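lol forgot to send this yesterday, sorry. struct tokens for the thing we talked abt
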């Protein structure tokens, strides 16, 4: 079996973690984001803390996309903002754009565009302008988008996610939780088959069928010729 190696995850894993993002002098607080896909009340909840500019998160994106479609009838897939602004200078603008899109029920459309075009906007000197074009392409109300993307309220939602992540001890991206329990072995998630097996095992365990859960993991671990994630 080919071994899946995501070197970027190891590199990002030594980062201290996201820090609260500064805004204007006005102190604004907010609830954490509520960006989810699938079932509002799923059998299990998978939570991803991610950075839109993180190459490892970009590498996981196509895998998670397939897993989301496979389990959308059983799982609540949550995305939480965790931009590593110390090493990703365009991350704040990306997360602002995504949360502003969420205000118009277009979070996942912006989420997908940001990851699909990650390499093209990561090095730009004017990320806000690029994301405004994405918003226009997605059919957002541009007057509303322009009014909300730069506000303290939008930033407060992102910071609320960061605060929650720090309380949980999140220090790298991506970090995944199932029902509040961190998935430590990212390598187990780095193929569609492996990620699906972990989710299915959690669903089976929640339903009281732990034997089937173990069998599923063992079956998927014997899969051969898996694809390597290219995060470069």
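and heres what i got for the seq, position by position
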């Amino acid at each position: 079996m080919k071994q899946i190696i995501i070197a970027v995850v190891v590199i990002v894993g030594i980062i201290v973690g996201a820090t609260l993002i500064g805004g204007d002098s006005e102190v604004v607080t907010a609830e954490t984001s509520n960006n989810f896909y699938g079932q509002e009340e799923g059998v299990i909840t998978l939570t991803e803390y991610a950075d839109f500019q993180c190459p490892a998160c970009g590498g996981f994106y196509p895998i998670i996309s397939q897993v989301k479609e496979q389990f959308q009838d059983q799982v609540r897939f949550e995305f939480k903002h965790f931009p590593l602004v110390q090493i990703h200078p365009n991350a704040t603008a990306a997360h602002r754009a995504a949360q502003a899109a969420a205000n118009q029920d277009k979070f996942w459309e912006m989420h997908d565009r940001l990851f699909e075009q990650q390499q093209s906007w990561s090095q730009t000197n004017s990320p806000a302008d690029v994301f405004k074009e994405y918003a226009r392409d997605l059919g957002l109300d541009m007057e509303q988008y322009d009014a909300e993307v730069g506000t303290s309220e939008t930033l407060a939602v992102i910071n609320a996610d960061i605060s929650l992540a720090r309380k949980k001890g999140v220090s790298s991206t991506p970090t995944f939780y199932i029902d509040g329990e961190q998935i430590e072995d990212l390598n187990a998630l780095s193929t569609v088959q492996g990620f699906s097996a972990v989710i299915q095992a959690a669903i089976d365990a929640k339903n009281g069928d732990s034997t089937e859960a173990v069998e599923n993991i063992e079956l998927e671990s014997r899969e051969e010729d898996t694809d390597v994630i290219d995060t470069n």
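The longest helix spans residues 55-71. anyway ping me if u want another try
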